[in-house]
Amino acid sequence: MELERLRPTVLRATFHVYELSALVAAARYVVESAPADVPAESLDQLRQLLGDYDQQLRDLPTAPTQPSGGSAGTAPEAS
Question: FRET pair for 79, CA 20 to 30 Å: which of 39, 46, 60, 66?
């Protein structure tokens, strides 16, 4: 993970997919099973963030294909 400060209240984050997936999964877990002492406002903020994430993910173009030969754990593309 890499963080870059663009402005005092704006950060740019660069994640590997597995890193972002772990953070999103944790946020979903909290929203779905938070103890009663978690403030409703915090849960609402997490729900909004997850909704925004889900929308951005739906709008995201598909990932480019791997070059011929593939990479570890993937089959090479047919030619």
Answer: 60
| φ, ψ at 70 (rounded to 5°) | 65, -170
Q: Both tokens of residue 37? A: 């002492």
CA 15, 29, 52, 40 torsion-angle sign: negative
Cα of first residue to Cα of last residue in the chain, in angstroms, is 35
Written as tens digits, the pLDDT of the chain (79 aa) is 999 999 999 999 999 999 999 999 999 999 999 889 999 999 999 999 999 999 999 999 987 777 665 555 555 454 4
